[in-house]
Specification:
single chain, mainly alpha, two-stranded parallel ribbon, two-stranded antiparallel ribbon, 19 helices, 71% helix
């Protein structure tokens, strides 16, 4: 790390990244905003239906089985949503994280250390809070990983609703934070929520995975400029990998992350790399992002968020359960404490400073927003307690309540800063030399 003459490190937290990265992240978040609205709509429909006179039909729909039993794929619609559709979501998590570290701004240590450390803090502290509250109940303690992940779609939907003009640096930080802790969550699922591994299908999964990786890495050689050829070959291989991982007993969403990591990322000339033009990662991201945001995650939310509350008495019973209390405190309190505290410690240890464009209240607002733990939290709740169990129902109530509280608190904090955000947004739009790149990005990256 370079130093100035006084010995202080030239390390600024949450400084602006490259303009190309800002444009790319902006495009992703616009898609996630639509997905977030659909996610919330799906969850609301499920809640209303599950607590209506027609509730029996909702649960019957989720339990309806379809698939081929000899291949261990006769699953309920709810299981297909959790094991199948969410694999698409985690495929994009793996793809996005690899892209950030290979071609994005996170290939620089000074930019990657902050969101990674903050994500780790935002996982550890909520898990500890939940574990302390439920230490006396071994059964309830199984849900310690529920409050570990951030739902980026829900979070950006909240930003859209409150009309926040959050600067690009904070948006990039939020997305990266969510992607990293989603990866941590899927690692937790693979390690702690897999009890009976079948070695044979797991070993067989390595064969199509190796073929998939080999062909993907040599995409241009084998498929040229015809992405349809890649789809016709790589997609079936990916489905086979998913099916074999599912048969092995490891949660099938893990296959999505592995397949995402296998896709090559090309560093374009704009990012200092040797090649230009869209690579396979850009093509797949463009194709799969709408499917994930518009179908996979909302459908999963529809099948997972429906819980029969049982009126005010049932709601009171759920909210006084240590499982729900632990989740609410972990997400609403633990997430911001973990993220904000880690970043503060990082500034003291490295003698770094927060970028002059921001204040700690901005970081606090984003940290509160990260307490919206919806999609992955619902998945972990089902894995922890079993779908339809009392603890699972109470966990869902806790997740919904915590996400709502976190959204409200984040909205209040960020709304008070909207005037400053509008000023920053206006600055980022000034392009006095009309070269297509705003002046602030050229000034900050000028040697």
């Amino acid at each position: 790390m370079s130093k100035n003459p006084s010995g202080q490190p030239l390390f600024s937290i949450l400084g602006r990244g490259s303009y190309s990265e800002s444009l790319r992240i902006g495009a992703i978040l616009r898609k996630e905003t639509v997905g977030g609205a659909l996610l919330v709509a799906g969850a609301l429909i499920a809640l209303i239906w599950a607590n209506s006179p027609a509730a029996e039909s909702y649960f019957a729909l989720g339990d309806f089985k379809i698939g081929y039993e000899p291949w261990h794929l006769e699953l309920s619609l709810g299981a297909w949503a959790a094991d199948g559709l969410l694999a698409i979501f985690f495929f994009l998590v793996g793809l996005e994280l690899k892209r950030e570290f290979v071609a994005g701004d996170l290939r620089q240590f000074s930019k990657s250390v902050v969101p990674i450390a903050a994500a780790a803090g935002g996982v550890v502290i909520p898990a500890v809070i939940y574990a302390v509250i439920n230490a006396s109940s071994p059964e309830a303690l199984r849900g310690w990983a529920i409050p570990t992940a951030t739902d980026i779609a829900f979070a950006v939907a909240v930003l859209a609703i409150i009309g926040s003009h959050l600067p690009s640096a904070l948006r990039i930080f939020l997305l990266t934070l969510a992607v990293v802790d989603d990866l941590i969550a899927i690692t937790i699922i693979a390690v702690f929520y897999t009890t009976d591994i079948q070695i044979t299908p797991l070993l067989f999964a390595l064969i199509p995975l190796a073929a998939y990786t080999f062909l993907a890495q040599r995409y241009r050689r084998f498929f040229g400029t015809k992405p349809i050829a890649a789809w016709l070959i790589l997609l079936p291989l990916g489905i086979i990998v998913w099916a074999l991982v599912h048969a092995s007993g490891i949660h099938a969403t893990v296959a999505g992350v592995l397949l995402g990591f296998a896709i090559p990322v090309i560093r374009s000339k704009a990012s200092g790399g040797p090649e230009a033009g869209p690579g396979l990662s850009e093509i797949f991201e463009h194709r799969f992002r709408p499917i994930s945001a518009g179908i996979a995650v909302p459908v999963f939310a529809f099948f997972s968020a429906g819980v029969a509350i049982g009126g005010w008495d049932g709601l009171g019973s759920a909210l006084t359960d240590s499982v729900a209390i632990g989740i609410i405190l972990a997400l609403v309190l633990g997430k911001p404490v973990g993220i904000l505290g880690t970043m503060w410690v990082l500034t003291k240890v490295t003698r770094a400073s927060l970028d002059k464009s921001f204040k700690w209240i901005d970081v606090a607002g984003v940290s509160l927003l990260a307490g919206i733990g919806f999609t992955v939290s619902l998945l972990v709740a089902e894995l922890s307690f079993g779908q339809g169990s009392i603890h699972d129902d109470h966990a869902k109530v806790g997740i919904l309540a915590a996400s709502l509280i976190a959204a409200i608190l984040a909205s209040i904090v960020l709304s008070t800063r909207n005037r400053q955000y509008r000023i920053a947004e206006a600055e980022e739009a000034v392009d006095s030399d009309e070269d297509g790149i705003p002046d602030v990005y050229q000034q900050e990256h000028r040697p």
